Amino acid sequence: MFVFCNLLIGVPMYTKKESLGFVRIMMAISGFSPLFILWAIKGLPSSFLLIYQDINKIWIGLCLFMIFLPNFILWKRYKSCSVNDDTKTVTVNSYKESSENILAYLFATLFPLFQSQLSSMNDFIALVVAFLVLVFIFIHLNLYYLNIVFAFKGYNTFTIVPGNSDENQHFTKPIILLSKRHSIKIGSELISYRLSDTVYMEKYD
Amino acid sequence: MINNFSAIELFVVLKDGKKEQHYNIPTTKDVKILLVRSLETTRKKLRIDDGDWETYEFAEEYAPKERLRLNTNSSELTSLVKIQDLNNINTDSSALDSPENITYYYVKFTKKNNQALFTFKRAQTFKPVLEKNGNFLSPQNGMLDIFTQNVFKLADDFDFIANDQYAYILHPVGFKNILKLNQYILEKAKEKTLALQKKLPFIDFEHLSHTVENNIGSANVIASLSAYSEIENLAKSKILAKAKEARIKINIVSEKLRPEKGSEVDFLKILNFQIYTVQLTEDGEVLVFEALRKKQKKSMNKP
C-alpha cells in the first residue's frame, strides 16, 4: 500500500509515466477536511442507530480517515517535491488573485453539504454522490488547490495567466501559484515546488 | 552538487510539423545530479575558466569537438536568445511518449544569484535505446523479466553552454543543428550581402546576392564576412591581384568587381581569407589552397 501510494505521489520507482492523478484527487478531498470535521462532530442522526448501535463510531472513524489520508498524501507529495527539488521557475507576467474562489468553495460547497439532513439511508447515499460529484468538479475545473490547509499555512492563491503581448510565453494552461506574498511584482521569477502540473507552491529556503 | 543551484529544469523540444514545441519534464534528484555532472564535464572539456577563446566562424569547418565561443549578441543567435527568454513552459512528461519527435533537449540551471545557465544537446543520445540494443532484462517481483519501459540515455556532455553573454561551443555540429543556423543564415544571406555593399563599394554585391541566397556555403561565408570588423580595409588592387593568382576571372561592371559566373563562392572565400596562394618553388608555380579553418598566426611585421 505504501509502495502504491509512493508511486502515485510522484516518487519514481519501477513504474509507468506519472500523471499525479491520484495526488490531485487527494488534494481535492483534502480541501473538504473542514466538512469531515463538522460531520464527525455532528454525527449521524439517531435513526441510524437503529441499524447498528456503534455506527456513530464507524462514522467518526471514517471521517477521521477521510481527513488523515488525503492530507497525508498531500504532505508526502510536498516532501517528495522537497527531496527531489521538483521545482519550476514560474514567471509572473500577468496574474489575478483567486481568493474569491475561497468564498465560492465555502458557500457553494461546504455549508450546503454540512447542512444536509440525513433522515434516511437514501439521504445518506445522495449526500455521498453529491460529495463525489463535487470532488469531480473540483478536479475537472482545476480547483483542487482550494484547501484550508494552505490558508492556515499563510498561502495566498494567484492564477498566473498569459499576458497580452508577451511573445515569450509558451504555456497554454493557467498556473496556480500558492505564495505567502500579498502581491507579486510583474516580471518576478519565482522558484516553486510542483504540487501538480498546474499547481505550484513558492519555495522558501 | 545540486545545492549550488536554486533550480535545475529539463526541457525537451518536439517537432510539431514546422513548429517546435517545448515541454518541461520533471526529474528526480538523481537525474539532476547527472545533469550537473554533465555540465561539469562539459565545462572541464571546454576549459571554460581558461582564456584565449577562438571565436566561432560560420564559414569554417570544425572538428567534432572544439573549444569555441560566440557572443550571444550576434544576430545569428536570435533563436538562442528566444529560447532563453521562454517562460512558463508547460510541464508534461507525456512528451516523452514520442521520443522519435524529440529534436533536442536543454537544461536551465538557475544559480542562487538568479543568473541562468543553459546547456543544450541534440537528441540522438536521448532517444530510447531499448530497440537498438536488444532486450533489457530486470528483476521484477522475484523473477527476471523483460524490461519494457522506455529507457533514455543522457549524454555525458552537452553540445554547448550559454549564458546571457556567450555561447561556449564544444560540439559545433550540434550547435549549428540545434539553433538551425544554416536555415537562419540562408534567410538572412541576401540582406547581409547587400549590406556589405556599403563597406566595399567597389564589389558588385548585388550580383553576388543572387548566388548567396540559394547556397549555404556562400551564405556562411557572407555571415563570416559580416562579422569581420576590418572589412573596409580590404583594398581593391590587392583583391584583384589575389584573384588573378588564384585563377579567378574578374570582370569590371559599372566600376565594380564582378567574378565570372561559377566563381562567386571562390571569390567570396578570397575576401574571407579562405583561399590563399603559395609559391615556394623556383619555377614560379603558384599553388592555390582552400582553408577549412583560418587561424591567423601572430603577424611578424607588426611591432
The class by helix and strand makeup of chain B works out as: alpha+beta
What structural class results from the helix and strand content of chain A?
A: alpha+beta
Which percent bin holds the helix content of chain A?
40-55%
| Major beta-sheet overview of chain B | 8 strands, mixed
Strand arrangement, major sheet of chain A: 1-5-6-4-3-2
Helix coverage percent of chain B: 25-40%
Secondary-structure element order of chain B, N to C: EEHEEHEEEEEEHHHHHEEHEE
Largest interface: A-B, 31 and 31 residues
Strand percentage of chain B, roughly? 15-25%
Number of β-strand runs of chain A: 6
Radius of gyration of chain A from CA coordinates: 19 Å
The biggest beta sheet of chain A, please? Answer: 6 strands, mixed
Q: Which H/E pattern describes the elements of chain A? A: HHHHHEEHHHEEEE
Task: Describe the protein.
In chain A, a hairpin with a 4-residue loop joins strand 5 (189-194) and strand 6. Helices cover 50% and strands 14% of the residues of chain A. In chain A, strands 1-5-6-4-3-2 form a 6-stranded mixed sheet. Chain A is an alpha+beta fold. Mean pLDDT of chain A is 79; it is low at 1-18. Chain A starts with a helix and ends with a strand. Chain B has an 8-stranded mixed sheet with strand order 2-1-5-6-9-10-4-3. In chain B, strands 7-8 form a two-stranded antiparallel ribbon. A two-stranded antiparallel sheet of chain B has the order 11-12. In chain B, a hairpin with a 3-residue loop joins strand 9 (160-162) and strand 10. The two termini of chain B are 48 Å apart. The mean pLDDT of chain B is 85.
